[in-house]
């Protein structure tokens, strides 16, 4: 688990550097992005008792991955990546997981983020369990979303020229389909995800001409 954390932390650091070369010094409010993503997760899960709603678990799980992106970023506080990974593992060791529903686990994580202006790996694990996501699924989905974030940046996300809706569906939905078609344990998994996104995006451009 420690090595997987190191891999994901390195990927997150590279993504953040793409947005700002010296991102740790900017003191971005990662905790704020975390609790806002928690709200989006609840919206996908459904909370409106006054109307019929069915949880969209594919989108819920993508929001879990978004939270993981921001949460890991919040843990960079001048420490080396290996030290951050060790602290993450230590936080999970011996933690008594709370058996609760998706909304309760999400609200607990959001509340902690607001109170501490940081990120609780243990409370995130409660959310992971509530969503019935394994660590392997977290890793696969994280790599996929990290690649999508790189793809967005490469195609004009920062200057606003990126098109997020592809033929009536968000790029996140296309990502879910691509991940389901690939083997995360295979060599070049990240590169295959990028190629799959690029092919669909280029087809969108061709259709618009």
UniProtKB/TrEMBL annotation:
EC number(s) from the headed UniProt entry: 3.6.1.23
Pfam families cross-referenced by the UniProt entry: dUTPase_2
Keyword match Hydrolase: yes
Keywords assigned by UniProt, alphabetized: Hydrolase
Gene Ontology MF: a single term: dUTP diphosphatase activity
Domain of life: Bacteria
Signal peptide: none
Enzyme class (EC, first level): hydrolase
Gene3D superfamilies referenced in this protein's UniProt entry, alphabetically: Type II deoxyuridine triphosphatase (1.10.4010.10)
SUPFAM superfamilies: all-alpha NTP pyrophosphatases (SSF101386)
InterPro entries: dUTPase/dCTP_pyrophosphatase (IPR014871)
Name used for this protein in its record: dUTP diphosphatase
Source organism: Dasania phycosphaerae
């Amino acid at each position: 688990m420690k090595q997987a954390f190191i891999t994901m932390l390195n990927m997150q650091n590279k993504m953040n550097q793409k947005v700002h070369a010296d991102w740790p010094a900017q003191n971005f409010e990662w905790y704020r992005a975390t609790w806002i993503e928690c709200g989006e997760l609840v919206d996908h899960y459904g909370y409106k008792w006054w109307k019929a709603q069915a949880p969209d678990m594919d989108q819920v799980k993508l929001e879990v991955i978004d939270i993981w992106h921001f949460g890991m970023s919040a843990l960079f506080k001048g420490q080396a990546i290996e030290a951050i990974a060790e602290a993450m593992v230590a936080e999970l060791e011996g933690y008594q997981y709370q058996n609760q529903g998706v909304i309760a686990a999400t609200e607990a994580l959001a509340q902690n983020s607001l109170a501490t202006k940081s990120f609780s790996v243990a409370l995130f694990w409660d959310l992971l369990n509530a969503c019935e996501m394994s660590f392997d699924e977290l890793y696969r989905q994280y790599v996929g979303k990290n690649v999508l974030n790189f793809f967005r940046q490469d195609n004009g996300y920062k200057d606003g020229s990126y098109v997020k809706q592809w033929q009536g569906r968000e790029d996140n939905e296309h990502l879910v389909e691509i991940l389901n078609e690939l083997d995360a344990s295979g060599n070049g998994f990240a590169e295959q995800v990028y190629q799959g996104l690029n092919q669909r995006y280029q087809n969108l451009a061709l259709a618009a001409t």
